[in-house]
Give the backbone structure.
Amino acid sequence: MLKDQVAVITGGTRGIGKAIATEFGEKGAKLALIATKKSEKAIETLGELRNRFGDVRLYACDVKEREQVDQVAKNILEDFKKVDILVNNAGITRDNLLARMSLAEMDDVIDVNLKGTMYMSAAFIKSFVKQRSGNIINISSVVGMMGNPGQANYAASKAGIIGFTKTIAKEYGKRNIRCNAIAPGYIETEMTKVLDEGLKKEIMETILLKSLGKPEDVAKVAAFLASEDSGYITGEVVKVDGGMYV
Ligand code: NDP
């Protein structure tokens, strides 16, 4: 149960982030959702989750902008009075082979996926230290563990998240702050919708369980890591990939 726990979820209005928000809401958490902007879709999700769970708020913030991150953290702490769980889920892809990869494609992916995770964590860590508890869950990817052609930028960002996760676990374990990562495999969302059918078929052949993952598969593991059921787990990377990378 996550009753009365306050959870911040970046990219919480669609895809995997929305599924995590829904799972946490069902378990009694209060939700602070972050999206790049208060788009129609984001507001629709807000309404949907508010109807079901009550205490849900939406914040616009670009996680790659440190000032915006610090400001949104301040606003969330003022609105909810505390934060217990931070899920760094916001992420993007800008695929290309290295020789063709533009500076913008490199920077954007590292900035959103890796720096965004670092900025958000830094923005909440002081409040976690002060309250002598906190729980950070970072969404990495199996690609960060195994590499993937065309995704040098993305794989580097997701591998970076794993190093970051283990370091935060080591720095703050004695303060009762846990930090774990989830490494999803192929999950059906808008991010993967754009892949061509041939590639999807190839990927499917590598998945031992012979089915694509759903956002809910990741959300259930996030809920476990957020709860006291995983109270003795920190610095861990949990793959949710149907056996794609074994
Ligand atoms: P989606 O593309 O469906 O959603 C991405 C989310 O990230 C959106 O909510 C988006 O907000 C948010 N976001 C993107 N850029 C920023 C930014 N600069 N600041 C704030 N929020 C931002 O992706 P998924 O749900 O598929 O992916 C979620 C996470 O899971 C990502 O980190 C991804 O790398 C990871 N992952 C996904 C896999 C998959 O197969 N789908 C596999 C492995 C890992 P907005 O709605 O405002 O655009």
Observations:
- DSSP finds nine helices and seven strands in the chain.
